[in-house]
């Protein structure tokens, strides 16, 4: 990747030493689609104190604006629809040392010619806005006349697609699936609360950090809500809604037994849409039962859940990866944040069984299966009824009946499959896999050993290598 500065020759030589993690590229369609994990078990007696969070790999500092001449591209990690991603070092980042980053390089001329500038802009805006343990950190940006480069955290563990291929029978154990799915749910819940619909969940986009925890990546297909339209925030107590039940159409509130009627409990924009709030009169139960008569509050006490997800956001875009597309996207009915819960169902299914549930012999058959074919589970391997129920609830073809469609992640986190997960201490869990120590010197040596073979297959033009899909 030769940016426009004096080091073109060196950068071109680096570009020849491209090496991918080996993710197979699944076709995309469309205009081209809290903190770490504790999977604990229930024990009798007082629970032991949680273990301290695992030490994190040294993070690169916030770099801000960076000159392209200060970046050394070590090897190519992968490519996506709008750019290629490189393992890179930024010179002089730490007291004269070099910071190791993943550099997503985009060709401005190519983006403009393919009308992809909006997607690149969306990804940058999202990376600048998010701050979550399971999402990328944007360390800096490098801009040139032709090249644009986003510098984010490098994940030495590769992606879950490649990691799954290395497992016995090419599938994860159920406990490992629970670990990864819980962290994905936490990440999706956060970005939904940021008024973002992800729309591209798949194992290739879930990377493994140095400490074994995940990082969700690749936001160029994400949908951002209108920032001037407040997302309704609710505090709810209805156990049926939290368990994935459905609200009555005759109710004035989107959720039955919502403490606050109609629009919101915490108005994100206080000057807009104010309504008088009327407290419901509740009769206390006779005889010290502890419950509240005429309400759905549990007798053991009031249990509240905060919900703020863009459940009413709609888009007509046809975007995603074929095997992960939700039925409402395929049929063109318009879609909202519920598509992320459909893709979560496909994601869990693939990690458990090693295949996706609706794959056909070509893309057209895959799309037909998504819309019309009933969900079926393979006989092997044996999977718990809780896991099957979770997948079935997430893969409801009617988006209004899908688990998570009404109250978002709150219902999913309460599903029996996640029983024992301590959502407040996710980062304290022991990951199923921790990648071996990584060194840039070893990566450079490996890249150099393949340089001659790679050079024979490379063209002499100065275009960005590959046709982008993966983001590291």
Break the fold down into its secondary structure elements and pairings.
Elements: H1 8-16, E1 28-29, E2 38-39, E3 64-66, E4 71-79, E5 84-91, E6 98-107, H2 108-113, H3 117-129, E7 138-143, E8 147-152, H4 160-165, H5 174-193, E9 196-197, E10 206-208, E11 214-216, E12 223-224, E13 234-236, H6 239-242, E14 283-284, E15 292-293, E16 305-307, E17 320-321, H7 327-330, H8 338-353, H9 363-372, H10 385-394, H11 409-413, E18 421-422, H12 440-449, H13 451-457
Parallel strand pairs: 3-7
Antiparallel strand pairs: 1-17, 2-18, 4-5, 5-6, 6-8, 7-8, 9-12, 10-11, 13-16, 14-15
Helix pairs in contact: 5-8, 8-10
Question: What report would you give on this structure?
Answer:
It is a single chain. By secondary structure, this protein is an alpha+beta fold. It has a domain at 8-24 and 58-157 and 436-457: 2-Layer Sandwich (Phosphorylase Kinase, domain 1), CATH 3.30.200.20. The protein contains 13 helices and 18 strands. Helix 8 (338-353) runs antiparallel to helix 10 (385-394). The longest helix is centred in the middle third of the chain and has 20 residues, at 174-193. The protein is globular. It starts with 7 loop residues before the first helix and ends in a 15-residue tail after the last helix. The relative contact order is 0.19. Residues 1-24, 30-45, 54-58, 246-302 and 458-472 have low confidence and may be disordered. Keywords: ATP-binding, Kinase, Nucleotide-binding, Serine/threonine-protein kinase, Transferase. It catalyses: L-threonyl-[protein] + ATP = O-phospho-L-threonyl-[protein] + ADP + H(+); L-seryl-[protein] + ATP = O-phospho-L-seryl-[protein] + ADP + H(+).
């Amino acid at each position: 990747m030769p940016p426009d500065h004096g080091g073109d020759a060196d950068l071109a030589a680096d570009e020849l030493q491209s090496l991918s993690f080996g993710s197979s590229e699944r076709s995309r369609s469309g205009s081209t689609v809290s903190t770490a994990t504790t999977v604990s078990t229930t024990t009798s007696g007082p629970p032991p104190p949680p273990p301290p969070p695992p030490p994190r790999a040294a993070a690169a500092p916030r770099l801000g604006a960076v000159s392209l001449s200060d970046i050394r591209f070590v090897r190519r990690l992968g490519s996506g629809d709008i750019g290629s991603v490189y393992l890179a070092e930024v010179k002089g980042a730490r007291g004269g040392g070099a910071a190791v980053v993943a550099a997503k390089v985009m060709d401005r001329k190519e983006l403009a010619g393919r009308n992809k500038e909006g997607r690149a802009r969306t990804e940058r805006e999202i990376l600048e806005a998010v701050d979550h343990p399971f999402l990328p950190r944007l360390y800096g940006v490098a801009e040139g006349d032709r090249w644009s480069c986003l510098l984010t955290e490098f994940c030495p563990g590769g992606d879950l697609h490649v990691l799954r291929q290395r497992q016995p029978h090419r599938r994860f154990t159920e406990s490992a699936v629970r670990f990864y799915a819980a962290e994905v749910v936490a990440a999706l819940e956060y970005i939904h609360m940021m008024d973002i619909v992800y729309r591209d969940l798949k194992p290739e986009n879930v990377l493994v950090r140095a400490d074994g925890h995940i990082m969700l990546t690749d936001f160029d297909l994400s949908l951002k809500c209108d920032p001037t339209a407040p997302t309704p925030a609710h505090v709810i107590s209805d156990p049926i809604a939290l368990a994935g039940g459905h609200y009555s159409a005759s109710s004035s509130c989107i959720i039955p037994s919502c403490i606050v009627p109609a629009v919101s409990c915490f108005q994100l924009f206080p000057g807009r849409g104010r309504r008088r709030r009327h407290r419901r009169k509740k009769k206390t139960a006779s005889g010290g039962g502890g419950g509240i008569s005429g309400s759905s509050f549990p007798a053991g006490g009031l249990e509240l859940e905060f919900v703020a997800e863009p459940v009413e956001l709609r888009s007509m875009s046809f975007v995603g990866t074929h095997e992960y597309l939700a039925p409402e996207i395929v049929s063109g009915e318009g879609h909202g944040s519920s598509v992320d819960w459909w893709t979560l169902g496909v994601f869990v299914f693939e990690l458990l069984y090693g295949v996706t549930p609706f794959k056909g012999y070509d893309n057209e058959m895959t799309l037909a299966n998504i819309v019309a074919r009933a969900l079926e589970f393979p006989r092997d391997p044996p999977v718990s009824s809780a896991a099957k129920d979770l997948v079935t609830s997430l893969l409801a073809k009617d988006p209004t009946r899908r688990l998570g469609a009404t109250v978002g992640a709150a219902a999913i986190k309460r599903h029996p499959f996640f029983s024992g997960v301590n959502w407040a201490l996710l980062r304290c869990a022991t990951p199923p896999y921790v990648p071996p120590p990584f060194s840039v010197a070893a990566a450079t040596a490996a890249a150099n050993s393949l340089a001659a073979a790679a050079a024979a297959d490379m063209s002499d033009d100065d275009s960005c290598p590959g046709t982008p899909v993966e983001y590291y």
